[in-house]
Design brief:
- By secondary structure, the chain is mainly alpha-helical.
- The chain starts with a helix and ends with a helix.
Length: 153
């Protein structure tokens, strides 16, 4: 089970790195090289920012946690606190750095983009933690069923 978990985390790390590189590339692309887009709704750009940083934070958490199962939510959070804080700071600083570098490529720097990036990072972390909690419960239930079934034989 542990080997399978490690293989999944390796795939998630590759996806995390790929998504970070894609966000950096698209964010620093000069305006003349950007595809012309049709805006379907107001603030579409902010939704894209939120979604991109959601994905990065979500994948970073899933690819970095040490132990999925802990006896309680408090134990899980204390075991992975550094990873959670590191993920938030990394994703937040990535957004800030990109916004600071964008004027060098002819694009504008927007404070609202950093807000959207931050919101996406927080939502991605929260979603990943919720999914990990669900997985942990299922692992506990499966272990309990296995033990119960074994004891009867």
């Amino acid at each position: 089970m542990r080997k399978k978990f490690e293989r999944i985390q390796t795939v998630l790390r590759v996806l995390t790195a790929s998504s970070i590189l894609l966000v950096i590339f698209m964010s620093l692309l000069s305006p003349s090289r950007l595809p012309s887009s049709v805006h379907f709704f107001p603030y579409e750009d902010k939704v894209l920012h939120t979604g991109a940083y959601f994905v990065i934070a979500f994948l970073m958490i899933l690819s970095s946690v040490r132990k999925v199962y802990q006896p309680s939510a408090r134990d899980f959070l204390s075991e992975n606190r550094r990873i959670i804080v590191y993920t938030f700071l990394t994703v937040f600083l990535l957004g800030v750095a990109i916004e600071l570098l964008q004027p060098l490529t002819g694009r504008s720097m927007e404070f609202l983009d950093v807000i959207a990036d931050t919101f996406g990072a927080l939502a991605g972390i929260a979603a990943a933690l919720k999914i990990l909690r669900i997985v942990a419960r299922r692992l506990v239930d499966a272990e309990r069923t296995r033990r119960t079934g074994t004891e009867r034989n």
